[in-house]
Amino acid sequence: MKIFIRMFLISMLFVSLVGCITTRNSSSEEPAVAVNGVTESFEEFVPYTEFDDIAVPNELSQVPENSYVADGRNFKYGKIVLKGRVENKSLIDFFKNQMVKDNWTLSNSFTSTISALTFEKPYKSCTIRIFDGSYNTEVEIYAVELKSAAFPESGGVQEQNIQ
């Protein structure tokens, strides 16, 4: 009986190994084609903040009690606080790559236990501070957007007389 059990286990091990070797993995780089001919994309979803051109990693969660966004007639500004278990270097790389994809220009940066990245766009500014904690990493995003209502209709500089 013991020989039968040993032979059974060895044959099951052999069958599972052969199955793993012959199973072909499809590459995630190649798009899958559905039955109706539509191409599916496996690109990871990146959530955006209250500012429609500032994305954040999926691994971070917003801390609502420390965040605020003010949206006025002439400008929109805010502080968005996020926390999560993500490495400092990984976050810096994410923001440098993602902000460039959203047409931001990196104007200043420094890296330490507290890192800061400053990005600019016409009429917009964004500073991202990353605090490398022992358990969680905290991210603060400060953003300012000047709206078109802030500019005079004439398109030029308005002269003011102070008396």
How would you portray this structure in words?
This protein is an alpha+beta fold and 163 residues long. The chain has a domain at 61-150: Alpha-D-Glucose-1,6-Bisphosphate, Chain A, domain 4 (2-Layer Sandwich), CATH 3.30.530. Helices cover 21% and strands 33% of the residues. The protein has two helices and nine strands; from the N terminus they run H-E-E-E-E-E-H-E-E-E-E. It has helices spanning 2-22, 88-101, and strands at residues 32-33, 39-40, 61-62, 68-71, 75-84, 105-110, 114-121, 124-132, 137-146. Strands 3, 4, 5, 6, 7, 8 and 9 form a seven-stranded antiparallel β-sheet that branches. Strands 1-2 form a two-stranded antiparallel sheet. Strand 8 (124-132) and strand 9 (137-146) form a beta hairpin. The longest helix has 21 residues, at 2-22. The chain is elongated and about 105 Å long. The protein starts with a helix and ends in a 17-residue tail after the last strand. This is Putative lipoprotein. It comes from Maridesulfovibrio hydrothermalis AM13 = DSM 14728. Residues 1-20 form the signal peptide.
List the keywords:
163 residues; 9 strands; 33% strand; alpha+beta; two-stranded antiparallel sheet; 21% helix
Give a quick rundown of the structure.
This is Putative lipoprotein. Keywords: Lipoprotein, Signal. With 163 residues, the chain is an alpha+beta fold.
CATH topology of the domain at 61-150: Alpha-D-Glucose-1,6-Bisphosphate, Chain A, domain 4
N-to-C terminal Cα separation, in Å? 109 Å
Helical proportion, percent range: 10-25%
List segments where confidence is low: pLDDT < 50 over at least 5 consecutive residues: 17-35, 37-43
Largest sheet: 7 strands, antiparallel
